[in-house]
Amino acid sequence: MTTSLEGTWALILGASSGIGLANARALALEGVNILGVHFDTAEGQEKTAATVEELRATGVAVHFFNANAAAAATRAELVPRFAELTGGRPLKILLHSLAFGTLLPYLPADGGPAMTNRQMDMTLNVMAHSLVYWTQDLHRTGLLGEGSGIFAMTSAGDQRISANYGAVSAAKCALESHVRQLAVELAPSRVAVNSLRAGVTVTPSLERIPEHRTLVELATRNNPHRRLTRPEDVAEAVVLLSRASSSWITGNIIGVDGGEALTT
After folding, report:
1. In Å, how far from its chain's centre is CA 221?
2. DSSP of 4-32, one letter per residue?
3. CATH number for the domain formed by residue range(s) 9-256
């Protein structure tokens, strides 16, 4: 059975750009009220303010918060605020789209820098472990319940190796493990938890990868659709999956890549 999304609430972690922003736009058009957490500079905040007005023009409530989504203090401050804004109703959607990590090799190459303990820990905390911590706090506060869906963004880096992607790859593997565990533990609450594995998508986070041009060329050439995945493709998948009232699709890694993984 499918349900209307109008009047529901979504929390997007990483809402101001890339896949997070595309989802905010698509969900707002479906009548979903948007809570967004982002971490931007002053220059980025001006752009985000314009985005908030754009989303509000669709007629939904929109509240963005510029804060470090991986910090415990941020959760402590914002989760009670979210409960107030939603009237205590469970979120329909939690999208974890945090893409901030260290892009360095594990061993020094040509005298360059190598990954440090602190950088490794930060990358896994932001891109993987924070999903668990947000889920714990939201569930404890009653903001996750029957009909809620959690989506976490993974990538083909969970299986493939590239020169500077090691820590992020490890984070994606950890994220997928967290998704499976949360899916089982939240099943009695009728909450679905899934990973979405997008194809190569041009976003600010991709452009920070030193070898991103090679990745883009390879994906463009090999994707059966002869184009890259777009943030809007992922947003369409989230909308489609969120319309389901069942929690029976859970614990999966769902490819949103136009078949890229089959041919690359």
Report:
1. 26
2. --TT-EEEEES-SSHHHHHHHHHHHHTT-
3. 3.40.50.720
